[in-house]
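User: Fold both of these, please.

Assistant: Here is the first one.
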Amino acid sequence: MRRRSLIIINCLCLGIIVLALAVRISRALPFSDPRHQAYNAWKALFPDANFYAPDKVKPAPKSAGPTITAKAYLVGNIASGKVYIEQNSAAALPVASMSKLITAIAATDTMEPGAEVGITAEETDVASDTARLSAGETFTVRELLYPLLLDSSNVAAEALASSSDRVKFLELMSSYAWEVGMPSTFFADPSGINPRNISTARDFFNLAKYLYRSKPDILALTRTIRADTGTTSEHGAHDFVNIHPFVTDPNFLGGKTGHTVAAGDTMLTIMKINGQPIAVVVLASENRKADTKLLLDRIRATVAER
């Protein structure tokens, strides 16, 4: 009996080691590498990101008015830390391109603003985006932050992460997440395409507090309506346009959108309400703009002036 128990324990340990190694290998491989495709087929045998949710997603409470479609959400004051409304805020769900906020933090903390980053063919082998960055172009880190945070460029995210060591960059992203109070967050890629980029509404509320207090420069970038780069010998002309639905609202302080099939609509929105910075996080939404507006309307009267 004791020998059988030892065999079972050893098999479990070996399985965990193999799974961890496979994840690390996948993160190290470019999207175009056939080994990455083989790994994708293999990992389909394992549960998806929702399996790792720390608590089960509960049905939204019934309401007489319009229904919030998001499976998880949180509304809170990022100056005081007070939470007004939350639902399934500890459930780990795919976050899609909201991941790029951490990509921006990791890039600006480890790379010089003027450092040059070239766009390779491998880095353009991701889901298309409106930034239209092309292989062969070279941008500074500062320039790439605009397509990253405004157009939500997957190519910009890959270029920043792969400019030195992609695996170490991803490890750094997870380290930053832990440091700013995001213990339920994991990143499998720098863009959010991978459904295993998971987090919680509570974690992103903590990130909003960190951005507001410690990274006002990144927050300011996310409320930039548009940015142009002229043609140079290094790259063509580009017009980067912010896709956040509240970017033209005078009370908008910053935020980031996301969308994939696995994640649905996701969004962080920070608005000034009665003089207070209020963050709204919605995950697994069917309509992020409508859900955010409903949540803001629900708490508007309860937010006190400074």
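And the second sequence with its predicted structure:
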Amino acid sequence: FCGAGTLCIEAAALARRLPPGRLRTFAFMRSPGFDLTVWERVKAAAMAAAEAHSPVPIIGTDRDAGAIQAAADNARRAGVAVEWRQAPLGRSPGVRQPPAGQGLWVSNPPYGIRVGDAAKLRHLYQRIGALKRTMPAGWRLALVVASPGLARATAVPLESVVMTDHGGTKVRLMVEPISASIEAET
């Protein structure tokens, strides 16, 4: 469910310690007291502190080839490297065989408001939970959801960490606590 690739692209930028807003113009830049020389110096210092490459793999998957192409184009424009794979959820190598060690599987699956019927999506969320339980200990799940009920269908302990508005829909980021991941190891 990588869609346009936003979550993977932001993760890749964070992993490299790239400064936010590095690719855009801000309204304050048109103010009379704005000093372009100072701004360029601050921006150059922030870019100099960035890592050349991500220290961790960032893998984005989607079953749709068009989504993968759009995500890859967006990552290129953002100046970050993401490994893109076209695969359905059940055969996604990043989910079926995640890299060793600790990791975070982040997904923005359909939530039955704009795309899909919430009642029919219960099976999808159950599948996400079943796949999560096959992952090695140390891997956690994070979902962007509009319905905590669908998140509960995963049967993975998830906590709401932030609520926001996404195109007029209230959504939550729900994350498996670290303590749940540690308990899975014992």
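The beta strands are 59-62, 83-86, 103-107, 139-145, 159-166, 169-175.
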